[in-house]
Amino acid sequence: MRSFLYVPGNQPKMLASALTRGADALIADLEDAVPPGEKETARHTVATWLRSLPAGAPVWVRVNSGPDGLADARA
């Protein structure tokens, strides 16, 4: 893979168009790109977006460490 596109998990419009950007892989970012007050909303947004993707889409999710990471994984 040559290119990875990181997309903030709290930006639904950016997630919606991410697959059309030509990157070899997409990373939905729940960590640094998302302000602390928006983490829960971002988790819900990313989970909903992941369910809408076609099978086999090259997508990863970047999670937080510690308790926030556990909440990310549960979502």
Q: What's the gist of this structure?
A:
With 75 residues, the chain is an alpha/beta fold. It has helices spanning 12-17, 39-52, 66-74, and strands spanning 4-8, 25-29, 59-62. Helix content is 39%, strand content 19%.
Low-confidence stretches: none
Largest sheet, in brief, is: 3 strands, parallel
Question: What structural class do you assign from the helix and strand content?
Answer: alpha/beta
- Share of β-strand residues: 15-25%
CA(first)-CA(last) distance: 27 Å
Give the helix level as a range of percent: 25-40%
How many domains, in number, for the residues? 1
Number of helices: 3
Rg (CA only):
12 Å
The spatial strand order of the largest sheet comes to 1-2-3
Order of helices and strands: EHEHEH
Shape, per Cα inertia axes: globular
Give the rounded overall mean pLDDT: 94
Compute the number of strand runs.
3
Task: Describe, in plain words, how this protein is organized in 3D.
The chain is α/β, with parallel strands linked by helices and 75 residues long. The chain has one domain (4-74). The chain has helices at residues 12-17, 39-52, 66-74, and strands at residues 4-8, 25-29, 59-62. It has a three-stranded parallel beta sheet. Strand 2, helix 2 and strand 3 (59-62) form a beta-alpha-beta unit. It is globular. The N and C termini lie far apart (27 Å). 21% of the residues are buried. The mean pLDDT is 94.
